[in-house]
Amino acid sequence: MTAGLGDPLIPAIADEMADLADRLCRLACILANDPAVLTPHFDELQSIDLMVQTQRALVDLLRQPGPAPARIAGIPVEALAMRIEARRGAHQDQAA
């Protein structure tokens, strides 16, 4: 059985993802406040920030009610929204 939006597994996964995003954000803040780390690893720290934003957007996507297209349209990271929509379409094609 696959987990649907009514499945209690979905909010449990969303909660776990939110906790991981919070931990990653705290780590990034600690690293960014150290000039010895920030200067040589600025791009990597920006990547961590994007990971946190992406993870939080996915959490919101899992938690929001409503049809998938409307939920996907609400994703603030545009590139992520485009990837999710493309992957959703590919999975629909495979299921057909």
What does this structure look like?
It is a single chain. The chain is mainly α. The chain has one domain (9-95). The protein is 77% helix and 0% strand. The chain has five helices and no strands. α1 runs antiparallel to α3 (42-63). The chain starts with 8 loop residues before the first helix and ends with a helix. The mean pLDDT is 91.
Summarize this entry quickly:
The chain has 96 residues and is mostly helical. It has helices at residues 9-32, 35-38, 42-63, 68-73, 78-95. It has five helices and no strands.
Task: Please supply descriptive tags for the structure shown above.
0% strand; 96 residues; mainly alpha; 5 helices
SSE blueprint:
Elements: H1 9-32, H2 35-38, H3 42-63, H4 68-73, H5 78-95
Helix pairs in contact: 1-3
Helicity range: over 70%
Distance between the termini: 18 Å
Number of domains: 1
Q: Strand percentage, roughly?
A: under 5%
How many strands, what sense, and barrel or not for the largest sheet?
none
Provide a count of the helices: 5
Average pLDDT, all residues: 91
